[in-house]
Each structure stands twice: as C-alpha cells, then as structure tokens.
C-alpha cells in the first residue's frame, strides 16, 4: 500500500485516450479486438502499421480539430482502411460504431465520478490528442467538469515533455505536490508526471496497454488502479 498522503491534494489531472474513455485499454488493442470480430484476416502487425498511419493523418489534417468523437473515429477508421487497402463501407461502419459505443459507455460511467470529484477538487486533462480534445469532451458532456484541458496540438508540446504537465498546473494554479495525475501509459503518463513532482495514479491494464519500457520502475506509480472508479476510494 502506498504511503503517499493524499490529504493535501487539491487537483487531479487526467489523460484522455485509454483513461477517460476506457479502463487502461490502448486504442490500438481495442481496435484489434473489433478487427478480430469483423475482419479476422487482418493480422495485428498489419493493423498496427495502419493504425499509426491513421494517427499521423489525424495530426496532419487540419479539419480533424473540428471533429467530435464520432467524426474522429470515422476519420481514423477510414484512414486505417485506406492504409490496409480495404474497401468495405459495411465493415468500416461496424468498426467505427463498435469503437464509439465502447468509448461512450466508459465516458457515461465516468461522468458521475467526475461530477463528484469536481465538487471537491480542481480537475484537468493533459492529453496527446488532435486539437479537438476540448470539443470532444464538451460534446460528450464532460467538458464542464474540467478547469483546464491541455491538448498537445493546441499547446504545441507532447507528453512525455514535462512542459505539457507544467502548463496544466499553471492553469490550475497548483504546485505539483498538490496535484495528482491519472493515466494508463507508463512511458507517456506515469514516468514523466512523477519526474515533474505530481502524485501518480496508474490505470494499469497489462493485457491491453502498451508494452513496458526496459527501464520500467514500478516506484514511479504512487498508486495503481484497475478502473477509474477506484478513484472513489482515493479522493472521495
């Protein structure tokens, strides 16, 4: 059990993808489960290549910043299919709809938790996203709970750069020792947040998250949880 004292915590920062929209499940792994159902002929390595081509397209296409969650997922899947050389509107719609529903299921569940947390703490988001994080969260009914939303495209800096965490802390008007960071990625979330001085809460799902780096240090995580709902016992 962690000996970190949470009584002085005044703010909590969250990652978005894999944290607010799932219980520690990386987008790539979640998509692969859907491909196994709808297009089982697509192997993981082929999907991985297509997934990161779609990620690059999301960052390069200016119009993505204006997309809501449904539009973003449609765009991402269309670019995956383009990279894979697949032309199947039916399969594309099935994949996009399945992914959207899984995201919304977690977002709806987490809305109640965020509402309760926001009554006691200053909340924020720090995310490597596509310029539309604030629009997406507002559209899904979660925007009102956050004092600050730092999107890497808007901020011009990406995790694991400490500057993106420090930018959020300035907006919250809190020192790192008075705030916690909750994320699902050890390399992008937990290690850099710990280096900044934040209390770290790792939403850990080993079966569905990115591989751990060779220099993995478990002490970087002050707390480990399996579901965002476990924050009830930490902060409420």
UniProtKB/TrEMBL annotation:
Entry cofactors: Mg(2+)
SUPFAM superfamilies to which the protein is assigned, alphabetical: HAD-like
Single Gene Ontology BP annotation: small molecule metabolic process
Gene3D superfamilies attached to this UniProt entry: 1.20.120.1600, HAD superfamily/HAD-like
GO function term, MF aspect, one: phosphatase activity
Keyword annotations of the record: Hydrolase, Magnesium, Metal-binding
Domain of life: Bacteria
Record-linked InterPro entries: HAD-like_hydrolase, HAD-like_sf, HAD-SF_hydro_IA, HAD_sf
Name used for this protein in its record: HAD family hydrolase
